[in-house]
Each structure stands twice: as C-alpha cells, then as structure tokens.
Write a structure and sequence with these properties.
Number of helices: 13
CATH superfamily of the largest domain: Intergrase catalytic core
Shape: elongated
Strand order of the largest sheet: 1-2-3
Helix content: 40-55%
Number of strands: 3
Number of domains: 3
Structural class: mainly alpha
CATH architecture of the largest domain: Orthogonal Bundle
CATH class of the largest domain: Mainly Alpha
Distance between the termini: 69 Å
Radius of gyration: 24 Å
CATH topology of the largest domain: hpI Integrase, Chain A
Length: about 325
C-alpha cells in the first residue's frame, strides 16, 4: 500500500485530469499530510482532521469548513485502499454561507463607467492606450457575461470578429466554450484591436487582447483598483466604500437582463435556463437559477406571468 503522501499525489493528478484545478485544495492537502507525519500517523483520523482544519484560530469558520472539506473528499478516495481511514462526518464545523447580494447596474451607470474609462488621464506616451483598454474590457464584460479571469486570458487569436465569436479557453474545470458577439461589439473590438496594433507597432507586446502599458497581460489587482477609482468618480461608490458594487456584479447584470428579456418576449426562462448556463460557463444549472432570486425586476416579471396563468384558468 502506498503512503499518504503518494496517495495525495495520485488523487490530485486524477482530479486535475478531470478538469478540476484544486489549487487551494492541493496546497491544503499537502500541508495536512505534513501535519499527520508530524503526529506520526500513517492514516487519516477524524480527530486529527478536525485539529488541522481549525488552524489558524483567527479566521472565519467558513475557512475551517473549507479545509475540512478538502480532507473529507480525499478521505473518501483513500478509504478504498486503506480501511483504517476515518472520513470526517458531514456537519462538523458547520457554517451558514452568505452569498453576496449582487448590485444590479442600470444602463446609465454602465455608460457612465465607460465614459469615465475613456477619459482616464495618462502621464506618458506608453499609457495612451490605457483608456481604450479599460473601456473595451469593462464594455465587453457588460455585454458578454464573461468572468474577469476569462476576459484577462483572451488572446488576439481568440477573438474571431468575422465569425462574431470569442473562444474562452481554460475556464472553470478546464473547459473551452464559444461565446457569440453582437455586431456592435465586434465593431468596438475591431476598432480597439486596430488602435492596439498602431500603439504597439515595432515594439514587443504579449499576445493577450487586453494589455497593460508595459505590454503584458493586465494585472487583476490593477483592474480592480481602476474599477474602484472609476466607480467613486461616477458616484457608484462613496469615497470610503470598500464593498459594493463589485466588478463581478456586471456579470450578474448580464444574466439578469437576459432572463428579463426572455420574460418580456413571452419565452419560458425556466426551459431556456440551460442555454444561459452554458453561455455563462456554469457547471450546474442551479448556479444560474440563483439569478432568478437576485433581482426585484425578475421577481416582478415572474409574478406577472404567474398572475396571468391564474387569470387564464377556466
């Protein structure tokens, strides 16, 4: 029988081969095995799993529960080859997850954000393209529903403007999907790419679609800092606000608007939900169904449809 450390390596290889990235789980499990070795234990026990999971002591209970879940999944795998393995029981270290309530941007708020992006100042010639980078990045997020990481990872070859489609590579679980674009979006992206080519003519630049003033892929932290600054500038955030609205909420807006349009055009959102789920890159339709609960406008449309059904009954 192989050692726990060998078993962890095989487990992670297997799960990653199925498309799971397991970055945090991978680091956590290796640390857990080191912890067991320090306690001279060659198999998983519930008691030691609990002790390890509750480290450090100054974090939220949700973090402890997550660490224990890493062990629980691995323990299920390990129990097939080592009957001594104790699988931590469900319900240990319970916590109530709180899903952030999305901020639903209005069309005018998105337009204000994009206008502010185009007016961003720059000090040096190398920053001349920066306003257009953020104008197109935030604009693309608002009309496509992409995750920020997916937009950051786009390369020039992934934008087929003739076919009006984006190729999203390496999304969640390593999947690739195609995202169709509206003709107006293709026009804006085409203009941006032409500006990008002129700006970087004769100079080294990465193949990423959205690049920094230094020619490499945009830094995620810089994207958020820029978004916060623009949000405060246009009044979406106060000077000291540190939470809402979030950049990720633009994705919520896209999903919600799509569902509202289906309602208003007489289509059945419940039946078409798998289409939206695939478009957004969700693994489970339930992840998309959550949007039905997050918008007063959606709830109003749903109630009006329900009322109409009752009125139509004989």
């Amino acid at each position: 029988m192989n050692t726990l450390r060998e078993a962890v390596g095989e487990y992670l290889d297997m799960r990653r081969g199925l498309g799971f990235k397991l970055q945090e789980a991978g680091k956590g499990l290796i640390d857990f095995i080191t912890f067991l070795e320090q306690h001279n234990t060659s198999y998983i026990t519930q008691a030691l799993a609990l002790v390890w999971a509750q480290q450090p002591s100054n974090v939220q209970p949700a973090y402890w529960a997550q660490r224990l879940s890493f062990v629980r999944e691995f323990a299920r795998y390990r129990s097939a080859t080592d009957p001594r393995t104790q699988i931590p029981l469900p319900g240990l270290l319970p916590f109530q997850p709180k899903r952030a309530r999305p901020y639903l941007y209005s069309d005018e708020e998105i337009r204000s954000l994009l206008r502010a992006a185009l007016k961003m100042p720059y000090r040096f010639e190398r920053g001349k393209l920066r306003p257009w980078v953020y104008y197109c990045l935030f604009g693309l997020l608002s009309v496509s529903g992409l995750r920020l990481g997916e937009a950051r990872n786009l390369e020039l070859q992934d934008a087929d403007l003739k076919a009006a489609v984006l190729t999203i590579r390496g999304a969640k679980f390593g999947k690739t999907r195609l995202v169709p674009l509206h003709a107006s979006t293709c026009t804006v992206l085409g203009d941006y790419i032409a500006r990008r080519q002129r700006h970087w003519a004769g100079r080294a630049v990465s193949s990423y679609l959205f690049v920094s003033s230094w020619g490499n892929r945009l830094d995620e932290g810089d994207i958020h800092r820029t978004f916060y600054a623009l949000s405060r500038q246009v009044g979406l955030r106060g000077p000291s606000d540190s939470r809402d609205p979030r950049l990720h909420d633009i994705r919520h807006r896209f999903a919600t608007n799509t569902l509202v349009q289906w309602y208003r055009s007489g289509q059945d959102p419940e039946r078409r939900l798998p289409l939206l789920s695939t478009y957004l890159g969700h693994v489970h339709v339930a992840d998309t169904q959550w949007y039905l609960e997050g918008s007063p406008e959606l709830m109003r449309e749903a109630m009006e449809r329900l009322q109409q059904r009752w009125e139509d009954r004989p």
